[in-house]
Structures are given as structure tokens and as C-alpha cells.
Amino acid sequence: MQIPKDALVADLVRLLDENLREDFDERAAIIEYDAKLPRAHAECLALLDVLRRNPGVLKQ
């Protein structure tokens, strides 16, 4: 697992549990490869996808 390139994304990803972090990493890699996007952009989209599928995950 690599540290996200964008500081805000990195801060939010740190709040995810291990399973959601793995989901985020996998989704970012798929988006980066399939859409041929820069990694930072793919990570932003992957985080949005994880949060969309898991509303309330950041509430503490």
C-alpha cells in the first residue's frame, strides 16, 4: 500500500479501516490503468467511490 499523492486524500484514507483501505488501493489502480489517468487523479476518484459505497465511514 502506497501513500496517496494528494495530502487531503492521504488524510482521509488514513481514517479508513484495513478492508476499505485495500478497496481504495485496488480501485485507484484499476482507474489509473483502465482510464489511463495520473495516479493522483485516480486516487481522488477511488476515494469518492469508496465513500459513496460506504456513507458515514468517516463519522466518528
Write the layout of secondary structure elements.
Elements: H1 7-13, H2 18-35, H3 39-53
Helix pairs in contact: 2-3
Task: Please describe what this structure looks like.
This protein is mostly helical. It has one domain (7-53). 67% of the residues lie in helices and 0% in strands. The chain contains 3 helices and no strands. It has helices at 7-13, 18-35, 39-53. Helix 2 crosses helix 3. The longest helix has 18 residues, at 18-35. The chain is globular. It starts with 6 loop residues before the first helix and ends in a 7-residue tail after the last helix. The mean pLDDT is 94.
In short:
This protein is mostly helical and 60 residues long.
Query: Structurally, how many domains make up the residues?
Result: 1
Structural class: mainly alpha
Mean pLDDT: 94
End-to-end separation in angstroms reads 24 Å
Q: How many helices does DSSP assign?
A: 3
Q: What helical percentage do the residues reach?
A: 55-70%
Keyword list:
single chain; 60 residues; mainly alpha; 3 helices
